[in-house]
Design a protein that fits this description.
It is a single chain. The protein is an alpha/beta fold and about 350 residues long. The protein has twelve helices and 14 strands. It has a seven-stranded mixed beta sheet, sandwiched between helices. Strands 7-6-12 form a three-stranded antiparallel beta sheet, with no helix packed on it. The radius of gyration is 20 Å and the shape is globular. The chain binds pyridoxal-5'-phosphate.
């Protein structure tokens, strides 16, 4: 990072290119395109797939709002498929029922770092000729059947400050599709291939070399950090008895961006959060409500029933799982949760 600062060349340049190369080595995709955020990555990926007014994109309502907002940015209509109670990820049965002749893409969200049911979802996408745009914002390094998330279609990663690999703000698109990659690169930089020659309407969604330098260092630390997250999650799963602990489905490697438990029906979540806070344990609620509940989304999709999302959203609590936790911290977390 200091080298970049001393060079005086701060904008998108050789460090961004090296960071993109490092991502292609991770995901095994032909292309990686760095962007200014996970949100702009999703936005560009949708546009590069030609998605716009009149099209439908199926996604999960139990996600960060950017998954849905980016669909709205393109003028397309988000269509929600409810989630599975055990994984918190989109349910392929709901997806199948939601497909119409207008469905252009499916956006699975690998929530908390656990891959979705990619075999079922890719089979559906192939059968109906629809694109897969993975929201892999939280799942860097996670695998399904040994294959990295972000490599099943067009992948979109977030490098936001809290993510497992972060640059403060930043994002990455991964794809094997030459046309999609070319469109993403053009749209990222004002539709400009040659200097001041504009082929189309584009944006400034570039990442800087300063941030790419951080990202390269972060990627190098990822395997060890992920190993520690997995160890921490294994410990918590073994020790916690008072609330529902997360399940990992067969054939996938979770990266534990979040370690999320569910309070039982007879436990008040707000009270549990207060008591954990008093015991010095940090918590997060991701997310307190499904995306289908917000007014700007309701305006487009109307009133839809997402019973599993509603149930899950009212009972989740995320606990610390980060790589800097010491054994004594983990014991304190498990003890405080078991005392609820
Ligand atoms: C599931 C999901 N999608 C999209 C995003 C958007 O990423 P960013 O905050 O980098 O724009 C995030 C992260 O914030 C996320 O968690």
């Amino acid at each position: 990072m200091l080298e970049v600062l001393e060079s005086g060349m701060l904008a998108q340049g050789p460090r961004v290119a090296a960071f993109e190369d490092a991502f292609t080595r991770l995901t095994g995709t032909r292309h990686a395109i760095a962007t200014s955020s996970g949100t702009t990555a999703l936005h560009l990926a949708l546009m590069a797939h030609g998605i716009g007014p009149g099209d439908e994109v199926i996604t999960s309502p139990f996600t960060f709002i950017a998954s849905v907002n980016t669909i709205l940015f393109t003028g397309a209509t988000p269509v929600f498929a409810d989630i599975q109670e055990d994984t918190f990820n989109i349910d392929p049965n709901w997806v199948e029922a939601a497909i119409t002749p207008r469905t252009k893409a499916l956006m699975p969200v690998h929530l908390y770092g656990q891959p979705c049911d990619m075999a079922e979802l890719t089979a559906l996408a192939d059968k109906h000729g629809i694109a897969i745009i993975e929201d892999a914002a939280q799942s860097i390094g996670a695998t399904y059947g040994g294959r990295q998330t972000g490599s099943f279609g067009t992948g979109c990663f977030s490098l936001y400050a809290t993510k497992n690999v972060m640059t403060g703000e930043g994002g990455m698109i991964t794809t094997d599709d030459d046309h999609v990659a070319d469109q993403c690169r053009l749209l990222r930089n004002h539709g400009m291939r040659k200097r001041y020659q504009y082929e189309m309407l584009g944006y400034n969604f570039r990442l800087t070399d300063v941030l790419a330098a951080i990202g390269i260092a972060q990627l190098g630390r990822m395997p060890e950090a992920t190993r520690r997250r997995r160890e921490n999650a294994r410990f918590l799963n073994a020790q916690i008895e008072s609330v529902g602990t997360p399940t990992v489905k067969e054939g996938r490697e979770h990266v534990w961006h979040q370690y999320t438990v569910r309070v039982p029906d007879d436990m008040d979540r707000d009270d549990a959060v207060t008591r954990l806070t008093e015991a010095g344990i940090g918590t997060g609620i991701f997310y307190p409500g499904g995306a289908h509940k917000f007014p700007h989304i309701k305006e487009v999709v109307g009133d839809v029933e997402m019973p599993v999302t509603d149930r899950v959203a009212s009972s989740v609590i995320s606990l610390p799982v980060h790589p800097l936790l010491e054994p004594a911290d983990l014991e304190r977390i498990a003890a405080a949760v078991n005392a609820l």
